[in-house]
Amino acid sequence: MQRFINNPDEVVEDTLKGFVKAHRDLVRLSERNPRVVAAQVAPIAGKVGVITGGGSGHEPAFIGYTGRTMLDAVAVGELFSSPTAKSFLDAAREANGGKGVVCLYGNYAGDNMNVKMAVQLAAKEGLTIATVVANDDVCSAPASEREKRRGVAGEIFMWKVGAAKAAEGASLEEVRATAQKAIDSCRSVGIGLGPCTLPAVGHPNFEIAPGTMEVGIGHHGEPGTRVEPLKTAAEIGRDMASIVLDDHGLAAGTEVAVLVSGLGATPLNELYILNDAIEAEITARGLVVHKTYVGNYFTSLEMVGATLTVMALDDELKRLLAVEAACPAGL
Amino acid sequence: MQSFANEGAAGMVLAVAGVIVANRAYLSEIDGKIGDGDHGVNMAKGFGMAAERIGPDMSLATAFDSLGTVLMSEIGGSMGPLYGMMFTRFAETIDKVPAIDAAAFSAMLASGLDGIETIGAAKVGDKTLLDTLVPAKTAFDAAIAEGQSFASALDALSTAAEAGRDSTKDLVAKIGRASRLGERSLGVLDAGATSCALILTTLATEAKARLGA
């Protein structure tokens, strides 16, 4: 596969260099730590800081959600690998406006450990970091073991809602609780049609046989719950919506926000084709689509595939979702 | 009492770093079967970076501390904090011990294991590096309790580490990225258990060489 890279071991550094040049009006590299991106406006005195962190290779996540009325700072890891505890700590320091910091991140073993260590290190300097861990990916564990589910594109809604709540002047506990409500209201599923390759590894990290698809695939190519013959977009979209909604169990009439994200190598037109089928199934179940996002919001290098996230809305979530914000990902 | 000098034993850690760097592709290949295939890349990066900061004349404790610090502060992922914690604890345990004997070596392993258990949530049988580390430590302690020499206890440690590593082939992953695979993680070695075996067997070989055994 042909790529635009220099040294395969320096993909993250090179990405960050170009990223901060492209979005200098909104973001900057931390002077404390070259693996932390901060909003130009951060820290904002008297506001709860909102941060996240995660492995690289998911662009525009995670860095692209840094900005105004969005994340204040983001810890950046190697490709598909958690940032260090020090980077999470430095992100919290960049975001600290004196009211504490909330770290909204995804449920992965490495992130859990590094965030836990960062929370302890921050406490030693009097900085409180509250945490919310996203676990919206339906296929990664049964509903009875929701705490084992990984976090995927539902994190975007969690960041948006958490950041909007913080911008309203809410307390640390209020921001944490609202972000928790946002992710609790999200369910996601991924479909993989083709693998991706870490540049430093040099070969695809899994295989998908021609004519098949991986249902429930993870953001790093974690295998799904089953391999099925490739179907039409109409059938796949219906299946994706069904997997998410069967788990969600929403009452008819519930308003929802829908996010369809490509995994990196799926063209936008195919995402629109999928979205048509997804909305048909959502509507058929008596739910009301309030707002839809279709695009490459949370990718996995050049994986072929898509994810669907459905967030059930209440008045507060609707209001916070509509708060004006500015970030490189253009949410 | 058999022992080797802490001072000037940094070469043990450099040897470990060398083995990890040499196994970069192998570890990534194993990881790629049930993980995302970057274990070797990240491990080699961290151990290689640490090797550049470790002088051969340093003490073993200082070298362990350098390695632990690099892994913890610059590598991230799961292995950065886990191995970072292990080596930092190794360093703390033997910091004031001029001559490393079997008791000091055992205390070091115990403290490293405790450090890992403090931040991780895995247990033996979950298909992780603990499946190598725990039996290796147990075998070392058992050999010493039976009255074997430090050197033959190190052999027991190596044998148990390799058997522990191989045991992960028949385990279903319960934690970390591979746990999402369920039954599909069967039949493949765990990458962390494999790197842990490399680390322990290299340390054992290097320690034996210093014991003149």
UniProtKB/TrEMBL annotation, chain A:
Keyword S-adenosyl-L-methionine carried by entry: no
Molecular-function annotations in GO: glycerone kinase activity
GO biological process: glycerol catabolic process
GO cellular component: cytosol
UniProt key word Acyltransferase: no
PROSITE patterns named in the record: DHAK
Gene3D superfamilies: Dihydroxyacetone kinase, domain 1, Dihydroxyacetone kinase, domain 2
Membrane spanning stretches: none
Residue ranges of every copy of the DhaK domain listed in the record: 7-330
Keywords noted in UniProt: Kinase, Transferase
PANTHER family to which the protein is assigned, alphabetical: TRIOKINASE/FMN CYCLASE (PTHR28629), TRIOKINASE_FMN CYCLASE (PTHR28629:SF4)
Protein name: Dihydroxyacetone kinase subunit DhaK
Organism encoding this protein: Segnochrobactrum spirostomi
Taxonomic lineage of the native organism: Bacteria, Pseudomonadati, Pseudomonadota, Alphaproteobacteria, Hyphomicrobiales
TrEMBL record, chain B:
Pfam families given in the database record: Dak2
Any Gene Ontology CC annotation: cytosol
Any GO BP: glycerol catabolic process
Taxonomic superkingdom: Bacteria
InterPro entries assigned: DhaK_L_YcgS, DhaL_dom, DhaL_dom_sf, Dihydroxyacetone_Kinase
Keywords: Kinase, Transferase
Protein name: Dihydroxyacetone kinase subunit L
Organism: Segnochrobactrum spirostomi
